[in-house]
Design goal:
The complex is a heterodimer of chains A (about 400) and B (about 190). Chain A is mainly α. Helices cover about 70% and strands about 0% of the residues of chain A. The chains are: A mainly alpha (about 400), B alpha+beta (about 190).
Amino acid sequence: MNIEKIKEFITTIPVNKVCARDLMAFEKTPRNNILAVVIFSFLAMLVVGVAIYLGQGHHAYNVTREHPWGLLIAVYIFFVVSSTGLCIVGSLGDVFGFKDYELISKRAIFGSIVTILAGFTVIAFEIGHPITMMIYNIASPGLTSAIWWMGTLYGLYLTFMVIEFIFLLKHDMKMARYFGLTGLLVGLAAHSNLGSVFGFLNARPISNGVFYPTYFILTAFITGIFIAFILMGFRYKLDFSEKVKTMLTGLAKIQALLISILIFFVTWKMLTDIYGGMPNRAEVAIHILGSWTFWAEVILAMVIPLYLILKDMGKSHVILFWASMSGMVGIFFMRYNLVHDTQLKPLQMLKTREYQVAPEWIHYFPSSTEIMISLGGLGLCMAMYYVGTKVFNLDEDTKEVK
Amino acid sequence: MARYGMALDYKNCINCKACEVACKEENGVLLGADKHRIWVGVKEIEGEYPLLDIVSSTFMPSQCQHCDDAPCEMVCPTHATYYDDNNVVRVDVDKCILCSYCMNACPYDARYVDDRTMTVDKCTFCSDTRLERGEVTTACQNTCPTKVRTFGDLDDPDSEISELLRTREHFSLKANLGTKPKLFYLT
């Protein structure tokens, strides 16, 4: 009886039947053609990158004993931050009941699913033994490990997001709200745990502390809004209806507030890092201030989007679409910097007392395999999203709410 | 059960690296692998020829500190890093997923990837070899020509290491982090 009900529940999920020919039947405009070529190229890179990795293992990466986390960790964080952000944006309408934002709920929740799947794909090729991880994550859980909590909660989060999305497709808003709220809370817990992976590192004074667990939630929301602009820009080909414009203006105003808070946070983080000249922290912060990737993060993710929003309080939606593109490039640098800067300072094997000056900085630049797998993750994310737009109706439902 | 630790009379170290060789031989560490399990840090001579300050040069043997509050053990998501019955920090290679979190969390840079097992390895105080055979010595201690290292049970008040720590001034590396290392440098 129960199996029958489950069968019925699954078979009544509204999906469009599509075949490969339907997927290729997109409007052959220059923009679409370029996007298709980009997605296929990235997917091809994923195949090549994974093939090299399977042949050479971690030797295909430029990670070292001194810098064990590289680009793939940064890209994983980039994707899961995007997922959490889209979950927050999607929840504005279907969980918290803000009517203006309901029209993006389904699209954002679907986006949160594909981004986290892309993140899981990338991390699968960074973790040395992913199958062992799945077994011993359950058989021998390390409850004092932030990675364990992060991974486990993200697994639960993905489950809740999928269930919420199904209820959204079925237009069962009540159940979608329950699962959406649970998924949001689990997602926020997972995401702040990801921040604590860095925050718990007593050995790394530049990262240690409460900053990252809270900063991750803030930057997730910011990332979610950037992606919301990009998704809506592609959906409406930058020709927005009044209803969409109202929503985007609202999101832009929230974004201005969030970026302002972020600038405030980062400024004080840098000042407290440098103030007093605490060894292992102050010189790392000063080194970070001298790196171009930090300024890429500041200019692309903070200054440009904030300036363009404040110019006319979020009414230039097309310009804000491009500002969001800039913002996402900046967010990528933000993630890369987070991972790299944590490991900048050598752990000083030769030291005899506290605070001996380290001999030099740790250098790292990703290998071609790491870059190919990372771009492949992006290609996979875009491909899954495109297929989703064909299989599911991601627009707002207009029929009566159940 | 014991609580093993090691005292290092590091000023006696002559940097002959016999300890590194003995460790490789005893524990099957890859030949040529640099700074795996144990190493000798070198503080170069200060000054410029001919005004060299010869006594400024010191050798600092080091390895996993076998902390009582080991960050690598706490951050391990699968308990691959664990305390054995002798309070030695060990690695279960079957459970290690190579997430490298322990490498990032260890303040002493004592963890490295073993290219043969593709897991994160470390010094085990010869637990798989000598201790398992019933010997209360480590290969590095046993081979040291100047008797830099003293290995023993910290909970045994009559052990040589307990006596040394009672009678000699000593310090631990990065003691401010609260990891409670069980490697003690005698001054």
